[in-house]
Amino acid sequence: MAETLEIKELDQVVVRFSGDSGDGMQLAGNIFSTVSATVGNSISTFPDYPADIRAPQGSLTGVSGFQVHIGAGQVFTPGDLCDVLVAMNAAALKTQYRYAKPNATIIIDTDSFGPKDLEKAAFKTDDPLKEMGIDPDRVIACPLTTMVKDCLADSGMDQKGILKCRNMFALGLVCWLFSRDTEIAFNFLREKFAKKPGLADANIKVIQAGYDYGHNTHSSAANVYRIETKNKVPGRYMDITGNKATAYGFIAAAEKAGLKLYLGSYPITPATDVLHELSKHKSLGVTTVQCEDEIAGCASAVGASFAGALAVTSTSGPGICLKSEAMNLAVIMELPLVVLDVQRGGPATGLPTKSEQTDLLQVLFGRNGESPMPVMAALSPTDCFDAAYDASKMALEHMTPVVLLTDAFVANGSGAFKLPKLDEYPAIEPPYVPEELRGTWTPYMRAENGTRYWAVPGREGFAHILGGLEKDDKTGAISTNPENHDLMTRKRAQKIANIEVPDLEVLGDRDDAELLIVGFGGTYGHLRAAMEEMRSQGKKVALAHFRYINPLPKNTAEVLKKYPRVVVAEQNMGQLAAWLRMKVDGFVPYQYNEVKGQPFVVSTLVSNFEQIINK
């Protein structure tokens, strides 16, 4: 009589795929995320890949990871530790086991644990499980490579091509473990390899083989699990990365404003995917130019803005350094421009594939002269769509360059994204020169809120010249008059100060919190999860997270001074805390700072925040 497996229902689970950078762990993780998002689960992902272009196979430095957190309800982070760890070789087990829970299920490919593999991974014995103190009863050990070779023996593929399918066997096994619908994965592969149907069929066959292996052997696992979606919201969903959501947000803003979209960019990790994605959408009025360097990318966008397009330039921290002169050109010319900064570890080339929040002071102050510029930060991968839309609206309606901060964690991570309806988004209305000013208009005439009117070239009677030299407030001619320069400097600053942004929202125990947690940008999920964990333990805690950093929300001082203890937590050495101390008189917060290139760990946050409460 066949054993009947009980299917247990879980609220959430964390799975981590790991292997060589050429083992396809990012693809396997992305497919599993897509399968989960499509059935309505909430997800949060964290791709963690090495900076090496191609580290030696089986080496400790070449391990690539992809972690996904799946929940029946809302999840805020990719999870501190995983419930299931897929380790495709000995090096992956050695480096990634620290991210596994003590009772985690571990899937290994025994074919990749030979003597040479163990030597490369710096194991001292021929029993890596015993050496690392891993209970073998928690390990699903299978000759994965051998089974994939057997599965595709009659496929006509060469050995190199067959080995590239190993990740799909692991994916099939994980799909069985969590009762996932493999047909969604099959459709993903058919679409991805539409021009290579044979390759799609091979990968589908291997997924099915992995699923069948789990089903037929029960894979030493006690149970099959299911994660049902709670509080389903009707709509179409997709698994989307932050970079892709950012690109879509720019397209949506251009369409809403009735403008062409122009991106001037230079490839740089981790921002390049925005260039890649936008280059696919010429049919939507998108023009992309891969320029020869960073300043050219920004300067070309300034030219596109002068010509009347929604202009964007994308980069990371090192590129902001190089773009700063052209960014300042947009400041003095008062032209709309969105500067996307996908932050990464620094300084210099630093940690190209890792995440930090270390560019904040650079984008606030890193230009010559008095050059105020709005700065905002996306909160999550899915929020990148709205953040890109809002940054574009701000730039176009206030005739100013705007910096949009994301980071490697947000840009490469993904979430379940409900496809938006564009007619529900606010209108974007650039301040075009009113027709009644024909004959009297000059380039720096302003609307009531201080915003310079926009005269798009081609309108008869509104020909003009802009440039990098200071201009006369009345005539637009070049001016070195001291009083005029002082006046124009103040007007540019006041224009930014006049921008209205939403009030700072306080979550949690907003009325009686013992501790207010403060952060900005992509740490939102981890800080909120820490707050929720502390509240579940009976602590009175609140969270105020900044999306708009310059100008700050009008109620910022009121919120920050309301609570007896405030901690500013950020992935730098205290840049937001410094900015808030500068803008809010008498504000002296506690600080929690990490600069590790990795996301916050919620349990570590909770421990440190509890110490502050207990002081």
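That was protein one. Protein two is written in the same sequence-then-structure order:
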Amino acid sequence: MKKFPLNPVCLYEDFYQFLREIRQKYTDKPALTYFTRRGEERSFSYNQLTEQALALRESLFLRKLNGRHIAIVGENSYEWILAYLAIAASGGVAVCIDAEQPDKTIREMVLAADAQAVFASGTYLPICRPLLQNNRITGLFRLEEKEGEEDCLADLCRQGREAGTNTTGPSLSPQSTAVIVYTSGTTSTSKPVMLSHQALLHNAGNSLSYLKGQERVFTSLPFYHTYGMTSAVLATFGRGAHMLINGDLKTVMRDLHLAQPDSMCTVPLMVEAIHKGIWMNAEKSGKADDLRALLKRDKLMRKLGKNSIHPALEAVRKQAVGTLTMITCGGAHLSPDITEEFQSMGLTILQGYGITECSPLVAVNSDYCNNPESVGFVIPEMEVKIVEDEIWVRGISVMNGYYKQEELTREAMEDGWFKTGDLGYLDKNDYLYITGRKKDLIVFKNGKKISPEKVEEQLRTIPLIKEVMVYGAASGTTADDVTLAATIYPNPELSAGLSSYEVLEQLQKAVDQINADLPPYQQIQLVNIREKEFEKTASQKIKRYLV
């Protein structure tokens, strides 16, 4: 393994300890900022954040909801984070509900996790209200404050504050379940994952062992997903940095520029969208050739060991993402070519790899030695081994199991190892590589195998493609008699004014160019066009089983 210094990290054993210690350490430092629809800034210090979370915790004791399963349903918000922290710190289990699911599924998720109460935003209150019938839940609380309405989170905080935040409650076991999170469900229905206090908090701390944490961290990742909550929010709070959040993807770029962050946690889809936006602007302004020349020159200079950023490339970056200089990216593979171009502009992208059942982070690149082809090094307190090309993980951050699904738990675990279903390998320098999903693997009659993700990565370089899914289309009577096909959602900005035939013709020409450099079995034989975006998971991965 390559040698580089590990950063000192803060490790916490339970959420009550976490709240008390970050309050003592960071006091008046800014903890969290968000922007209203009008772009107005709302900020909270560590004192304010922890005081309100502990007051809400006290209120849960007063209502005898401490130690209970309590669901949270809503968009990203300051109040969402308060509910999560207070529930876990009271000895309860925060049930994180995927707010993008259909109404019926949201209610089913609440009930499947045995939640006795729900915190919901105004948007989701009508969806959750039927759960009060027949006492399926005993409490429903509004996350945001609204004049004239009681039983909102702010009221509970006031009640807890008036009672005094002195209830210590039973000591919390680091191994006890603090959170139930539903898996993303790219290849099947979602599963309820039980994660312990120690699993989440150690994962958040260890995520920073290989990379220097920045002072201002921006994210729009959903908090009901472990990547957004653990790797962004908890990791930032644990070291006393400033978290800047977005709760509405319609305003994400506006908020990114208003926030003026140093770093951002996001997914490849967001990075690819920014990258495509840069090139579209360059084409429209007639500067695309100049940009290509600058990037080519910078690549040559880097090979000669000269790493200074050209002012014109730095200007491109600032126009696109403002003050941002570092992105940690996970959830899917990102093209190394995109990473290299952003590096030339002064924006470092560090890829990582995680999975919900591991709290989620398993590996991440280091700013000391970044390998864009890889997802980095396995983090401390975690182990990886490769079994028949599948990645198995063992360590402190692995789940306690699937809630009330013992058979699924037994299938997923073996002697303490979690079988991820992801395919990959470790090289001689201990870099971890992901090659695809075991369930997505396409097998041909001649025995050849291919991961569709690799082909999709190449197809996404075509400007006219916004989203794409590659699959094996049946072409015979047996399961392995397939041809490689691609279903494409065209970029609406570039396809505007074109007929379906013209779009398909342009796509076919671009696909043929890519096919020319691929062996026959990896070539796309069939191209389909879809009229709307694919349904995606919280981490913006296509739900393949629905297509």
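The radius of gyration is 24 Å. Keep this in mind for the problem set.
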